[in-house]
Amino acid sequence: MDLMTREKLTEVVRLGNEGRFREAEAITRALLRRDRDQRESFILHFRLKRRRHEALRQHLQEQRGAEIDFLPRRLTFVALGTTGLCNASCMHCPTGKTTTDQMPRVPMPLPLFESIMRQIDDLGIILQGQISFGLFGDALLDPHVQRRVQFVRETLPEASISINTNGAAYDRARHSGIAEEQIILALHCESLKPDVYGILMQPLQFQRVLPKIEQILADFGSKVLVSVPVTRLNRDELPAIDAFFRQRGVGDLGFDIFSSRCAEERTVFETLALAPVKNRCGPDVHEQLIVDCDGKVLICCNDFRRVEVIGDLARQNLLDVLLHPERRRMVEQFATGRENERSSCSACYCDQKIEGIHGRGVQPATEKSDTVA
Ligand SMILES: C[S@@+](CC[C@H](N)C(=O)[O-])C[C@H]1O[C@@H](n2cnc3c(N)ncnc32)[C@H](O)[C@@H]1O
Ligand code: SF4
């Protein structure tokens, strides 16, 4: 820890002891804005924010009674449709298909976005996990992506921001500034073979996207996390994909479990899946917030057809959305194994996790023996 940080943290403790919690939190916020990996700042910020939340909670309980018990103290995952637009229509993705052609394909208005972020902070809710941009669209097609990153870093500096993209829309002039920020760039790439890539990530073409991928790797380096949904078409290629990206210095790779994305028609899914099973989620969905580009709140980031709308942040405030009776019903359903009462959940299938395939990367056998030697 540098001297300046140590002095600031001492100041935070002093202000806290004097009961000047707002001033103390302003300092931890600034410290995390500078470096969200600074552990001591994170811990003190967490405590100050929790303290503020508990005070507000007590006040709300006096006003609104027991319903406040249902208010989450933290969010572990926030997914935002920062834009509904995508430049691809991957073979297995509902985006760009007739089943989703009525869905909004616009950027989320900045005032709506900023209001959601401010309300999370005003409620003293810690964003303990990831905030992910680009729900059913591609985050780099959003004209406000850089402004949004900066706003989240200022408002919720504890959050881990993930910008989800296939990379095709990368434009150095518009996007390279984002690399200055503490973010993860989740780069979706399903194959390095032009024919397989062209089938899975249609209508994108590997030869045209590759130069963009190379620019992203050069500009974002270890901030890149490569996301590879694993299917029958790319499973044999995983060691090559792993080697290609690791040699180019990415932070990590995720060989992800393939999902049906709650599609009613599962022919493509079943053709591509390795070992499909019915998916089930637990009641921790309570600590997740999924908001599409027009403010509609959904129960799941896989509900591309938006059949389960449980709030609308363009019309309601966040407190009312988090206490919405439909949200409570959802948690009860998930806690008692009745999630199939939700039509999106009844259509939710995914691959079983396979050891040695899914996870953080598969090293080629030759590399493993090199390492041992
Ligand atoms: C739906 S995409 C939206 C953001 C952006 N367009 C992209 O492709 O990254 C978000 C993430 O889902 C992953 N993904 C796409 N289709 C999937 C599927 N059928 N099963 C599991 N993950 C999938 C992608 O790798 C990506 O990281
Ligand atoms: S997976 Fe991402 S890139 Fe592919 S169509 Fe869906 S939203 Fe677009």
**Averaged pLDDT, please?**
95
Q: Which kinds of small molecule does this entry bind, naming each only once?
A: S-adenosylmethionine, iron/sulfur cluster
Largest sheet: 9 strands, mixed
- Look at the helices and sheets and give the structural class: alpha/beta
H/E series = HHHEHEHEHEHHEHEHEEEEHHHEH
Q: What sort of overall outline do the alpha carbons produce when their principal axes are compared?
A: globular
Give the helix proportion (percent range). 25-40%
* Computed Rg: 22 Å
Work out the number of β strands: 11
Query: Are there runs of 5+ residues with pLDDT below 50, and where?
Result: 363-373
Please give the structural blueprint.
Layout: H1 3-17, H2 21-34, H3 39-64, E1 74-80, H4 110-122, E2 126-133, H5 145-155, E3 160-165, H6 172-175, E4 184-188, H7 194-200, H8 206-220, E5 224-229, H9 238-247, E6 252-256, H10 267-272, E7 276-278, E8 288-291, E9 296-298, E10 309-312, H11 318-322, H12 325-335, H13 343-346, E11 349-351, H14 365-372
Parallel strand pairs: 1-2, 1-8, 2-3, 3-4, 4-5, 5-6
Antiparallel strand pairs: 7-11, 8-9, 9-10
The structure holds S-adenosylmethionine (SAM) and iron/sulfur cluster.
The site of S-adenosylmethionine has 17 residues, from strand 3, strand 4 and strand 5.
